[in-house]
Specification:
Layout (H helix, E strand, L loop, with lengths): L13 E10 L6 E11 L4 E5 L6 H9 L6 E6 L2 E2 L7 E4 L11 H5 L1 H5 L4 H14 L15 H13 L5 E5 L7 H18 L2 E6 L2 H7 L2 E5 L6 E6 L14 H14 L19 H7 L1
Parallel strand pairs: 3-8, 3-9, 6-7, 7-8
Antiparallel strand pairs: 1-2, 1-4, 4-5, 9-10
Helix pairs in contact: 4-5, 8-9
């Protein structure tokens, strides 16, 4: 099918200016995210990578409009984030599907809330279900699906609202390794078609390297961006990428960044064709 979602060429631009977020109340309050400056271009796929408790999900919650920053500015497409919006879709680690609704009605729910007639919203839901490989499962209930299939339905339910930004909080973290790899490839296929801006939270280095255009590595709490790593890998990507020397070298670099008491090796230098240099191979061996 042709892309059912249309985005303005500049939709989904994100800008954070000295953004700080505090969580908790009174004497129990603490700074979870501290003075983050960040610009994300429309259509970029960005991974937030960091240890547990570093503020990744907190930052995602602010982007979704569920948390109010303590200071600084957060803007999307030049407008301030002032609360939740269907233009910012959010996918969690565990699905939030309605167990009493069939798959097609779960996916179409956002359109129902906007007053779209059943025939039109079901047609749109069927298109998206076909795109995520679930044609023929429209009339099942969530409990009749595997975990990976439930997450496919969740992604389709978010995409039907045509979000400018797709926010994903470790959406594949509860899946087995093989299903997780399949879901990562599915996500890249869907993103290649729609090119909405994606901010994807993970603590898995391999996942971040496989998916992202950029990896934003965060420090332990209070969360700060310690490195903005732009990846050199071309698209489309496949599972063989993880065996390449430049992938392994970048993985070692990220590991060192996450272990703040360890020396950080320099980034590998790439040839004009993207092949690893001898310097990169030294770090990969």
């Amino acid at each position: 099918m042709n892309a059912p979602l249309a985005f303005a060429p500049d939709a989904g631009r994100i800008a954070l200016d000295q953004l700080s977020i505090r969580v908790g109340h009174g004497k129990d309050a603490f700074t979870a995210v501290d003075r983050v400056d960040l610009d994300i271009a429309a259509g970029e796929f960005v991974c937030l990578l960091g240890p547990s408790g570093c503020g990744k999900s907190t930052l995602l919650g602010a982007l979704a409009g569920h948390l109010t920053p303590a200071s600084g500015a957060l803007r999307i497409d030049d407008g301030p984030v002032a609360g939740p919006s269907s233009e910012r879709g959010l996918v969690f680690q565990h699905h939030t599907l309605f167990p009493w609704r069939r798959v097609i009605d779960n996916v179409a729910f956002g359109l129902k809330m906007r007053g779209i007639k059943q025939a039109e919203r079901h047609a749109a839901a069927r298109e998206l279900l076909a795109l995520v490989g679930l044609a023929g499962f429209e009339h099942r209930y969530p409990s009749q699906l595997s975990g990976g299939m439930q997450q496919r339905v969740e992604i389709a339910r978010v995409l039907i609202n045509r979000p400018r930004v797709l926010l994903m909080d470790e959406p594949f973290g509860a899946l087995d390794a093989l299903t997780r790899l399949k879901m990562q490839q599915l996500l890249l296929d869907v993103w290649a078609r729609f090119r909405t801006t994606v901010v994807f939270v993970t603590h898995d280095i391999d996942e971040a390297l496989f998916l992202a255009d950029r990896i934003l590595v965060m420090s332990p709490r209070p969360g700060r961006i310690v490195e903005d790593l732009r990846l050199p890998f071309t698209r489309p990507r496949d599972a063989d990428l993880s065996t390449r020397a430049d992938f392994v070298a970048l993985k070692r670099h990220c590991l060192a960044l996450l272990h703040h008491d360890a020396p950080v090796p320099p980034l590998p230098r790439l040839s004009p064709l993207g092949a690893p240099s001898i310097h990169a191979l030294q770090f990969a061996i």
